[in-house]
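Annual report, structural modelling task.

Input specification for the zinc ion complex:
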Amino acid sequence: MNQMTHPYASERTMPDPDACWDAFLRRDRGVDGQFVGVVLTTGIYCKPSCAARHPKRENMIFLPDPAAARAAGFRACLRCRPDEVGRDRLAVEAAKALIAGAETPPSLDEVAAHAGYAPHHFHRLFKRETGMTPAAYARALRAERLKAALGEENSVTEAIYEAGYNAPSRAYADAERHLGMTPSAWKNGGAGVAIRHALVPTSLGPALVAATEKGLCRISFDEDEADLRRYFPKAELLPADARLDALAKQVSALVDDPAAGADLPVDVRGTAFQQAIWAALCAIPPGETRSYGEIVAAIGKPGAVRAAGTACGDNNLAVLIPCHRVLRSDGGMGGYAYGIERKRALLEREKER
Ligand SMILES: [Zn+2]
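The model returned the following structure:
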């Protein structure tokens, strides 16, 4: 709520009576808390949005705040509760701070409890003050961050939302993480980069897990060191150390429960287009699927279906970047780099959650 846009903002101690009266006639919630109106015939003061019938103009005066009205001997309206406006504003501010500071957006129940209100009441209150529900506010915040991470690709984020993605927060957090990656010098086949790797047993067969010191650079099935050498011909390939082992365990757990998500460091390079596709993949909620057509619509490039397929195929991080959530537009399973059975299994596991 930007108070500076209201004509009353600079006149807090002396509201312009005509503007105040107009605000009462409009029942303008936007200026609640900036002044109160006193009905002289009843001795009761109200906030501008009060639903009560308006008195005659000559029977109403305006004061800067409830304290001034009380000091003059007037009583607060029981219907619009003008004394609570400040408290409501503070509660909404507190909730906004809670949402902004949270790794994953808190639930409505959590936000309401934090603010000291019943959930449904707080939902209404929050929407009234901000114009958005708490969930929409959290999404908007994340969109802003995603946008910043995407740099020049601003339209990508907006398009993801416009396309009707309603992913749980973690999906956006994942997208953010992938977009915020700081790639190693992958040009020249990984020259000057050390990659540790291991084959880790998973419930879908052995997975190759490889990472630089910055993060995971390859997760795949049915591959080994020779394949890794093909992807990174000039990198220095090293055996696993304790850190890689720990990452590999987390990858194995992710295969068991792909819906659980994982906060794993990544180190993959992609063009802006590839990154946009990968972000759109990460924004698909676990347990749901999208078509390539929906993916490219989501990033604002509706003609790029074939390129999107290629970008999915270029995904270096199986399961973690969930290209298994893309189906053919007719609902068919479509392809998967590591076999249709694995794709089916991953999707079934997510659905069971
Ligand atoms: Zn009232």
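The chain has four domains: 3-80, 95-131, 143-179+268-352, 188-250.
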